[in-house]
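Fold this sequence, please.
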Amino acid sequence: MRCFIGFFGLTRSLKQTVDSIRSGFYAPLFAAGIPMLRAGHFNLPDCIDNPRSGEAALVPDRRETALLDLDLCWVEPQSDAMIAEAWQFARAYPDAFGDGYRSLANLCHQLHSLRRLWSLLRMLGAERRDIVLLLRPDLLYLDVLDIEAHVQPLLSGQADIIVPGWQGWGGLNDRFAFCTGHAASLYATRLRRFRDGCRAIGTMHAETFLKWLLQEQELRVMTTGLRAVRLRANGAIAANDRPMAQGFVAAG
């Protein structure tokens, strides 16, 4: 078997999260003798300026991506033109996030990045029978990949996709996913079902959209307790994630 690891979205705080990625994913796969191929697509905004997250005029460092030792890497200037069609369509529906559709734009950028990432993974040769880990680089991973719990269910046919079992907000957490190659292709290219998702759920909400898609595709879903917290570009842990991080510190 082969394992493909794909990173997507914003690097944000990669200098602070990369050690958790190496120890949490690279090391256990290497120890198990599982070959790895790694790719990343990253949005590169001129600056990160988000009052909701406390990030103000922070300029991302595109050189950070080298820390991930990728086989293929695509750093793309973030442009609202890339997501204009989807964003405008969803604006005809209620704002599920209640922040003037700003979080909707962030979601669209993430889905765009995922779609680009899948094209890179395909270039590396990812196929239906492979295992694919789809990870955000701006997460501080508090736990380590468990081969028995997170890889064997995909190989044995118990599950097509494994997602976090926490913070589902009525749907399924979309921060990272462990997938078969087939499930990864659907997960990573779900932007093409964006309009169908809006119509089906009556708005656009990240976790609800993911749940709808996986159910609609009749994929077998398992959840994991493997924890990860969002680390902002200013080094702060996202407010909703702080209790989880505090538990990690106490355990350590």
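The chain has one domain: 3-251. The chain has a mean pLDDT of 93.
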